[in-house]
């Protein structure tokens, strides 16, 4: 027997509801199409934390950051990279915001999450978003990709197994491959959410790409560093960026004019 999502949401958010009942509610939640800050998304709240937050409160934990980023991107066409696009919480909003002529590249190697991403983009029909089925790294080739056996598919990651989970082999590419041919064309925004592999994705843009094409804005989980090979926060700061604001474990860095 299924119950209306509004009823389940009300019970879940009630302060009197126990943790055990909340776990049971979440485990039984069916996919549902919802309003996501003026966009449409079909969310699967039972097995992905980002989608669950959109179901529960209509936004993700990155909402304040995303609002600030959209303001800073302005009204001129821009190029953006969404690495670890998940179900599309960033790409959907970027696509809705982007002026005509913009280019948004969304990277998602997890087949299930990529399917959800493509569907959510189709609900909003943003012509500016291109989805890529590869993982982003500091090398071109193939790597093991691990998907956890828990209720958060967004935790899938490269090269670091989970105690319980499944393994796939995925193609890896470098962000430098997606830079415009015109070296004077800047990347306006880079978001990276790839569970401890952030350094491998970001570093080539700072060490191999022309300085003119380094991202103007970089947003990532800068305290998720236990699996890093390079202190990417230090490298970003050494490259002239300034941290303008922290949002929990995430931070936004801006390249000086």
Automatic annotation (TrEMBL):
Annotated transmembrane regions: none
InterPro entries named among the record's database cross-references: FkbM_mtfrase, SAM-dependent_MTase, SAM-dependent_MTases_sf
GO biological process, one term: methylation
Signal peptide range in chain numbering: none
Keywords linked to the UniProt accession: Methyltransferase, Transferase
Keyword set includes Cell wall biogenesis/degradation: no
Superkingdom of origin organism: Bacteria
Domain Methyltransferase FkbM as annotated: residue spans: 82-242
One Pfam family named in its UniProt record: Methyltransf_21
GO MF terms held by the record: methyltransferase activity
Family matches, as Gene3D superfamilies: Vaccinia Virus protein VP39
Xref: PANTHER family: METHYLTRANSFERASE, FKBM FAMILY PROTEIN, SLL1173 PROTEIN
The protein's name: Methyltransferase domain protein
Species this chain originates from: Roseovarius aestuarii
